[in-house]
Amino acid sequence: MSAISDDSLDRQHSRQHHSRENARSVSGESSSQIEPIEQIQLSVHQQGAYRWNRPNYSRNRRRLEIWAFVLRFLFELWYDSKPWTYRGGYSEEKRARRRKRQAIWIRESMLQLGPTFIKLGQLFSTRSDLFPAEYVEELSKLQDRVPAFSYEQAEAIVEQDFGRQVGELFRAFEPIPLAAASLGQVHKAQLHSGEEVVVKVQRPGLKRLFQIDLAIARTVVRYFDNHPKWGRGRDWIGIYDECYKILYEEIDYLNEGQNADTFRRNFRDRDWVRVPRVYWRYTSPRVLTLEYVPGIKISHYEALEAAGLDRKVLAQLGAEAYLRQLLNHGFFHADPHPGNVAVSPEGALIFYDFGMMGRVRRDIRVKMLDLFFGIAKKNAEDVVTALVELEALSPMDDMGPVRRSIQYILDHLMDKPFEEQSVTAISDDLYAIAYDQPFRFPATFTFVMRAFSTLEGVGKGLDPDFNFMEVAKPFAMQIMSNANSSDRNTFFDELGRQAAQVSSTALGLPGRIEDTIEKLERGDVRVRVRSIETDRVLRRLGSIQMGTNLALLVSAFTLSATILLVNDKIWLALVVALVAIALAGSLIRLLMSVERSDKMF
């Protein structure tokens, strides 16, 4: 049906208006990504609101826009790092305020730069180990409320992918989208068999935009990776490759359909979980047709109560569903925010949007078990070893500082009973300690932590007394006792392995001592000693030497300016005098920093 009458449009708009909440839920877009129907109608005629919102993209123009953003960001980083730029003197409070303003500007700029950077910003909002808390907080608010593209463009994409007219494929196809986001938009439709479906159509030219933007982004990433300060201890190329893979998987609707089928099969024996069925006959890389499964968004508490649903039970079911995904299936929804979870009138959980999924391999579970035992024993050495094996921690020559940080976590965070722990608090403390440390949390790990925090927030919204850790305890015990048949090692097997390891270490101790003595005699053992006091003295001597050099330069330029002034070379004398004043300012700042350093000790 390529042509639709005005009366039909009015009837469709009326139906959409009365079922707005259900339509928003079934779309699979987050609540922050969904626009009211009236705004979507208006935005179809306002596609020029964003520079990137066009079917064809200029590589040179995109390069100019992206590098303008990057260069301004670099300048602000440099400017904010200079104490003399702060009116009334530098303070951490003023620095934090500037970071907050900069974070807001970054969020708004990423929205202006378009789909690629909107999705990158949403991915970065999970990386508290890489970015300051102010950036993460603002990026987590990133809403891709962008203009919907026209029905004619959506119709053209459907016809290009299937080689048939829309009217041949569907009995009805509503031209006004239910939801519009950066990657695509969702239309309600009806098959000729009478089944109601939703059709997710990708934004025109999106793949080409990704190719252009990610090619430019790689040059930016390479600059940061080679930077002497920002590249130190950071694998920006590895992070880029990770994001690249995630983004391309998310715009492949065939992959999303396969994920939905796998997710539905995993919960086929649970009648309290529903997943929309994929209509493969009407699905392509740019078009995804799903069963229309309306529901009440899980964060609409009043609507849930009006439907007679028990909010406490829903909180428990939400946590249990995710724990089953992670621990039993090894295949989990990486973005379980309230917009992607709804509740049916019967009380079943409905999951939407399977573009971003995570997987936990079987060998990773064994390593996670080693990590669990290390944490239970409060042994930082075992925890460090497990983190290195999980590739969440990069090995380095001196692991002492990292080991002490982890020991601090174990001593201060694990003093409460398991049931009283807060996922959000633990993840915040962990990321705070990991920031500027050699931790390399894989995307799977950050997705899990974000999902846990999100589910904890949703659970507390449904039930103020909800405790995620209390729900997770039986699953943790299940791993320990290995009730899950997919893992062969039982709890007692693990205890036996631990006991065997201890006895092996004890029996081998005399030989290790003898080897160490032999290495000492041969001179093969190097002892590294670091004295904080010596380091401080050396830094002070270096500062004094620099101050002496500056003082000599100030004297030389002052004398030169005086000689030039006596010889009536006024302008040249003024230039030399300005150089002398600048050097004098640097000397004063250096002396002040030396004085502050002395007061700290």
Automatic annotation (TrEMBL):
Keywords: Kinase, Membrane, Transferase, Transmembrane, Transmembrane helix
Compositional bias of kind Basic and acidic residues: 8-23
Region (Disordered): 1-32
One GO MF term: protein kinase activity
Gene Ontology terms: cellular component: membrane
Transmembrane segments: 546-564, 570-592
One Pfam family it belongs to: ABC1
Ranges of residues in domain Protein kinase: 172-492
Organism superkingdom: Bacteria
Single Gene Ontology BP annotation: membrane lipid biosynthetic process
PANTHER family membership: CHAPERONE-ACTIVITY OF BC1 COMPLEX CABC1 -RELATED, PROTEIN ACTIVITY OF BC1 COMPLEX KINASE 7, CHLOROPLASTIC
Family: Belongs to the protein kinase superfamily. ADCK protein kinase family.
Protein name: AarF/ABC1/UbiB kinase family protein
Organism name: Oxynema aestuarii AP17
